[in-house]
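FAQ

Q: What does a record look like?
A: Structure on top, sequence underneath. For example:
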């Protein structure tokens, strides 16, 4: 008998137990085991079959690692049909998560019972595919079209009680999945219950599927799988038979399986799990994390404190004065009320946090017992050094001292203390209690257990933590400054900020770069430009001043009501600010540039190639350990479209030789900006791709 599907007889019932940790994924062995188990039960004269999962879950889905490889017999759709067609009474007992192919196996069973904590879902669209083993045909038959559309196009995990109401489950009962399953089967047999194949149920009445398709397509911002899934559900209603509907589902499934979006989304799935697993941290115990200190209660400090408080950690926040401390408390209180409004926090927990878990102080002494202190003060080296000298004087031995700097040299900051091994960068993204990305910046002397503590904190705060090395901007902001510069060059050469924003949102970015600048505040870019000019721009580097003119006029973006766009309060988004184009035109005239026309494709290509080239430098220099680290930074901190997997996955899909040849071509017009990254040249010369470095 199969190793991964246990077989046991309990009277008339054959019990098939999945034993494929960690999540009982339906890999080839599991599928073979299920098929063999059904055949054996039939051959042995059992009257019923119970299917359940051992360990933490029922089947959590197809084995995603098999995607993109030649499929192996028995295929899941055929297996599901075979289970459904069995002359025996087949019952599934669910616990943990019944997802994707897992729920499809359950839907092929004749009856379904689950423990109350079980979650059910068809999350395939999040992997760029659709339920391909009858899920789009069976779910609408048991739950109706609207419920199926909701579940399949969002991939939402439904709690068992809701699934019971929807008709997806027949019973919800507390207990051990094997035992409640056995009791239920015995009851069904005693009552003479008959088989109940979903394929024999009538097809639901069609709805306006064209309208549903359009609505889902629009919501997906370029992601295709949810919209394509609508067409599969349509087939459940309109095809002339169950088999014909299934054939249509298969066809659509295969199209998506071959798509680039599927590759990107699966890359994202595995990368977000791999990103915090660093070989150098294997076996290294993080330090204790019970008390957190935060210095500075501005937007960033208050956001960091909120994030820690929401994760159940007590926080002591130090500000310069009582007034500033009160303002910080108000900011945190506003963040927490937002969490209550969004249903993420109960009112009681909110009151407990503000009443008992948040301490405010104006004296560093309050940080004596903190296990980890995060500094979020003004971005100035001298100020930061003073903070760290103070921390060195008061913090207990072994406390982790972290800076939230975005650009500054953490090695220099660490030298302001007598314990550089305890110093690390924890770079949060604003708003820190919402954004998922955390760059863990490892300085020359950061001790391994300090790095491990950074990752432990990231996990506790439910962040996607990425290891970064020290350089100007670390991973994310350094790459940002390259692709942002490319956008500025295109503006000088003839594109408008609005055309660029549109091209990039059409590509799938949450926002275009100019709308992002307005949101972040144009003063940030202005300060950076001044800093870079003061340090001396490289020979031949291009510069533009139109954005300086906006800042000089007091236009800093959303916070002042005007930037690249003009904003009316109460309205989301803005309209192009008419003052901008004349400023750009004046800059072009001053620089003797004749504007030319850019197509959307060229805009996207240049912007993306600039991003990839800088990312290749960041990986080549070891600032990011692997290409997947860069991909996760862009996905979780910079609104990069998930269905492309990240810029370096995008680059692999486009082909690195073409990217390198574009850079060489464009370097003829601007040799300073378009210099190929050595790693990119190396990979092309060796016929390799970025993916080859993820597994190395
Ligand atoms: N296939 C292969 N490996 C899987 C997997 C799957 N379906 N689901 C999870 N894993 C792996 C993870 O990669 C991880 O491996 P490592 O420990 O080596 O990193 C391990 O199982 C544990 O997973 P998590 O860390 O994610 O554990 P969790 O408890 O946080 O979450 C989960 C569990 C909710 C099941 C989550 O893993 C998940 O959402 N999995 C994907 C579920 C899914 O999308 N299923 C549909 C698959 S597509 C399908 O079924 C197609 C079809 O119709 C034919």
């Amino acid at each position: 008998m199969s190793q991964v599907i246990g077989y046991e007889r309990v009277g008339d019932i054959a019990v098939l137990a999945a034993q494929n940790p960690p999540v009982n994924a339906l890999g080839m062995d599991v599928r073979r085991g299920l098929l063999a188990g059904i055949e054996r039960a039939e051959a042995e004269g059992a009257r019923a079959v119970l299917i359940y999962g051992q360990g933490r879950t029922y089947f959590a889905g197809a084995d995603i690692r098999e995607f993109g490889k030649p499929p192996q017999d028995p295929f899941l759709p055929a297996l599901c049909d075979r289970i459904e067609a069995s002359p025996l009474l087949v019952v599934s007992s669910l616990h943990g998560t019944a997802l994707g192919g897992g729920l499809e196996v359950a839907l092929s069973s004749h009856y379904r019972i689950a423990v109350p904590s079980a979650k059910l879902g068809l999350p395939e669209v999040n992997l760029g595919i659709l339920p391909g083993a009858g899920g789009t045909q069976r779910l609408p038959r048991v739950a109706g079209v609207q419920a199926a559309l909701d579940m399949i196009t969002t991939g939402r995990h439904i709690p068992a009680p809701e699934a019971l109401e929807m008709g997806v489950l027949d019973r919800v009962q507390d207990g051990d999945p094997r035992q409640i399953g056995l009791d239920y089967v015995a009851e069904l047999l005693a009552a003479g219950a008959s088989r109940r194949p979903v394929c024999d149920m009538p097809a639901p009445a069609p709805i306006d599927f064209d309208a549903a398709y359009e609505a889902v397509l629009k919501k997906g911002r370029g992601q295709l799988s949810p919209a394509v899934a609508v067409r599969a559900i349509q087939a459940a209603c309109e095809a002339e038979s169950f088999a014909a509907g299934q054939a249509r589902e298969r066809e659509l499934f295969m199209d998506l399986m071959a798509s680039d979006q599927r590759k990107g989304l699966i890359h994202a799935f595995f990368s977000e799990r791999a990103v915090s697993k660093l070989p150098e941290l294997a076996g290294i115990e993080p330090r204790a994390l019970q008390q957190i200190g935060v210095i500075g209660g501005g937007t960033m400090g208050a956001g960091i404190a909120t994030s820690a408080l929401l994760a159940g950690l007590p926080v002591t926040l130090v500000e310069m004065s009582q007034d500033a401390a009160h303002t910080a408390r108000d900011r945190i209180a506003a963040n927490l009320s937002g969490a209550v409004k969004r249903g993420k926090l109960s009112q009681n927990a909110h009151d407990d946090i503000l009443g008992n878990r948040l301490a405010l102080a104006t004296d560093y002494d309050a940080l004596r017992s903190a296990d980890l202190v995060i500094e979020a003060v003004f971005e100035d080296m001298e100020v930061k050094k003073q903070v760290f000298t103070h921390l060195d004087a008061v913090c207990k031995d072994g406390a982790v001292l972290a800076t939230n700097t975005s650009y500054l040299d953490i090695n220099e900051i660490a030298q302001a203390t007598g314990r550089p091994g305890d110093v690390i960068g924890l770079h949060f993204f604003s708003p820190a209690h919402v954004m998922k990305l955390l760059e863990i910046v490892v300085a020359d002397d950061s001790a391994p257990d300090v790095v491990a503590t950074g990752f432990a904190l990231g996990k506790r705060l439910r962040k996607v933590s990425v290891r970064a090395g020290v350089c100007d901007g670390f991973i994310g902001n350094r790459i940002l400054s390259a692709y942002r510069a490319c956008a500025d060059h295109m503006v000088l050469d003839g594109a408008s900020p609005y055309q660029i924003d549109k091209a990039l949102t059409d590509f799938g970015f949450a926002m275009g770069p100019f709308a992002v600048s307005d949101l972040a505040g144009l003063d940030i870019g202005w300060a950076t430009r001044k800093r870079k000019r003061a340090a001396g721009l490289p020979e031949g580097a291009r510069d533009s001043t139109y954005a300086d003119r906006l800042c000089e006029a007091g236009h800093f973006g959303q916070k002042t009501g005007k930037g690249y766009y003009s904003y009316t309060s109460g309205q989301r988004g803005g309209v192009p600010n008419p003052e901008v184009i004349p400023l750009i035109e004046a800059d072009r005239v001053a620089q003797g540039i004749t504007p030319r026309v850019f197509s959307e494709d060229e805009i996207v290509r240049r912007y993306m190639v600039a991003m990839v080239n800088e990312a290749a430098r960041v990986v080549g220099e070891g600032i990011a350990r692997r290409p997947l680290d860069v991909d996760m930074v862009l996905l979780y901190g910079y609104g990069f479209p998930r269905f492309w997997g990240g810029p370096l996955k995008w680059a692999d899909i486009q082909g690195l030789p073409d990217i390198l040849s574009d850079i060489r071509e464009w370097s003829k017009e601007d040799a300073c900006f378009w210099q190929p990254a050595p790693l990119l040249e190396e990979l092309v010369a060796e016929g390799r791709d970025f993916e080859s470095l993820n597994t190395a």
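Q: Is there anything notable about this one?
A: The pocket of acetoacetyl-coenzyme A is lined by residues 22-23, 25, 60-65, 76, 97, 99-101, 104, 123-124, 127, 131-133, 273 (CB under 6 Å).
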